[in-house]
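User: Show me a protein chain along with its predicted structure.
Assistant: Here is one chain, sequence first, then structure tokens.
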Amino acid sequence: MSMKLKSLALCLLLAASCLAPVQAAAPQSNKDIVVAFFRMMFQDREIDEAVRLYVAKNNYTQHNPYMRDGVEPMVDFFPHYFEQHPQASVDIKRGIAEGDLVVIHNLWRESPEDRGQAVVDIFRVENGKIVEHWDVSQEIPENPANKNGMF
């Protein structure tokens, strides 16, 4: 193939790729999946959509001792929680990923006046869906023993 034909073929390929329909980019990593879920679920409060897009419907294991396994308990609990706590907020401080595990270190407050809780949520992702969750939380004390903060 001559240089001129190669150049023309390359130009046609580039033009075709520019005209191809733009598709929404899917999350590329387990961390992207969990952060997108966390934001949609707890910041945007689009609970049904967050669960539909990011959580394994028939294979979700919950390790929080106050919540049953499966997606239904989340879908049932959080709308009522946010109704009762309309000023509740969550601020993601950091996200850490290793293999199929993603950790979200966050500040959870029920109101702006609340000192809040430092929370660590751990998610396991399998085939692009969240399949398992653990969490631990600690109240932020009024008079901490040091000035380092919890984040």
